[in-house]
Amino acid sequence: MRSALCSSILASALLPGVSALPLAHHDGDSCYVVVTTHYVTVDPVPTHTSSDETPYPLPTVIHSTSVPPDSETPYPIPTPDPDDTPYPLPTVTHSTETSIPPYPTDHPTDPTDVPTDESTSEPVPEPTPTPTPEPATCRPAWDNTGKAPSTGPLRAALIFVDFPDSPADQFGQSTEDLYAPLKSQPADLYSQMSYGKLEFEIVPLLDQFYRMPNDSVSYGFADDDGMTGEEHGRYINDALAAVGDSFSFQGIDVLFIASPNGTEEINRSASYSNAVTAPDGSEFTAGNVITYGNDLYPEGEWQTVNHETGHAMGLPDLYPYSPGGNALFVGGFDMMGLVWGQSPDLFAWHKWRLNWIEDGDVNCVAENGVTTHRLSPIEVAGGTKAIAIPVNATGYVMAEVRSKQGANSEACDEGTGVLLYTTDSALGSGDGPVRVIDTKPETSGCGSEDNGALLNDAPLTDVGGEPFDTELGVKIRIVGQEGDDYIVEVEREV
Ligand SMILES: *[C@@H]1O[C@H](CO)[C@@H](O)[C@H](O)[C@H]1NC(C)=O
Ligand SMILES: *[C@@H]1O[C@H](CO)[C@@H](O)[C@H](O)[C@H]1NC(C)=O
Ligand SMILES: *[C@@H]1O[C@H](CO)[C@@H](O)[C@H](O)[C@H]1NC(C)=O
Ligand SMILES: *[C@@H]1O[C@H](CO)[C@@H](O)[C@H](O)[C@H]1NC(C)=O
What we know:
Blueprint: H1 3-13, E1 18-20, E2 25-27, E3 30-32, E4 35-37, H2 135-138, E5 152-162, H3 168-171, H4 175-179, H5 185-193, E6 198-211, H6 229-243, E7 254-258, E8 270-271, E9 276-277, E10 283-284, E11 289-292, H7 303-312, H8 348-353, E12 362-364, E13 369-375, E14 386-390, E15 395-402, E16 417-424, E17 434-436, H9 453-456, E18 468-469, E19 474-482, E20 485-492
Parallel strand pairs: 5-6, 5-7, 7-11, 12-14
Antiparallel strand pairs: 1-4, 2-3, 8-11, 9-10, 13-20, 14-15, 15-16, 16-17, 18-19, 19-20
The structure holds 2-acetamido-2-deoxy-beta-D-glucopyranose (4 copies).
């Protein structure tokens, strides 16, 4: 099946309240689509809203809509539409992260780190010291309230269910068979992407498929008019009731529920937008219960686990919830856009939010002028991982280096270099909170259209070339390259 057909399947999957996950994935004759559900709300509208991205800068009263105290120009904080909010905060939440370290006053740019001579094709100018930013202007105060932990252990229980109309023995499957691809691959990928900081562990209940009380069709996953929150909630409660209190969910952060491979009616994966209480009394906050459908099982699709768990840790969807194609905003960069993109490692912006990258790994350019920076690829630990250039109260121009290492080993050549993008912390899932800047808009890129071709060659690669003008008051020029590192000059005139 060719991409055109996959595109049409994708388009047909965009039902009200449901948006297709990035991408039609080709596997022989099939075209697989993952879908994340965001409900047209069935529960009372929350008294406050939670977008995936917390409006910057976060007031001390978390859900206040007051104007950011530090901004010279008061940008009104948009009130997120609850319909667009996949995970309304439950009324009771517990914080997993409490404090955000202040931005260091001694700036991480170390002039002695910058090469001055050999192995650089272009002469590298002396680095200029980066101005010390005001603490509040650099890092958004991301709100991790109720989110799954992103460093240290993150434990996900995995329950397999089956149905009267789709019993697992009909397919001759065992829970071990279905668990096999999930056993180490998602954990290894997280370990790699987080530089060893996230210890992801799936705790599977392998003793049986827990039998659901109703037929698979009754839960509405494949309904033409979309699954409702009520249906999804019933599915989760039925699964938990089937397990009963025989299992203690103490110490479990996230709950996964998976159906047999081949249960056609459960044809999408979705995370639940309300809090859930297990029979043993354990609480799962909104977004931390994820149900997996048939889309989990084709060869290589296990990365769906990393995408969905990314939401549990607070990351937004980077593909549009409105038409335009799943690759519209970020092409094949970051698996919160396209799960199977050519360069699927998370943006430095996301790694920063998850505390895989710390403030000291980011150069902040909060003052106008020309500064020089040395960037090392995001796929490997060490060095400076990003340049963050605030351009307004919520917006940033970001720069990072993509290479073909680690999680991006399958990247196309054109997908490497200095990747520029904007972020807007006022925008959440589906609204384009991150947008890649295509420095080569005239070229057709690399990879298939579904896999983000046009944007896949977005990175800047021209060493010693003209400054690239982002037209946001920021110009970027590559002045040198040493090994995997790029020496980058930033001209800020905001
Ligand atoms: C689910 O099964 C129970 C028990 O057979 C039945 O009473 C109920 O109506 C069913 N619900 C749906 C939505 O099919
Ligand atoms: C699930 O199946 C229904 C019914 O065949 C179909 O309309 C829908 O597009 C499918 N969803 C996905 C994501 O494949
Ligand atoms: C699920 O079923 C498909 C089709 O039979 C098969 O190709 C795939 O390997 C199965 N996946 C798992 C994890 O068993
Ligand atoms: C701030 O910058 C971001 C990123 O370029 C942009 O999306 C947003 O519209 C800007 N906001 C305002 C109020 O200009």
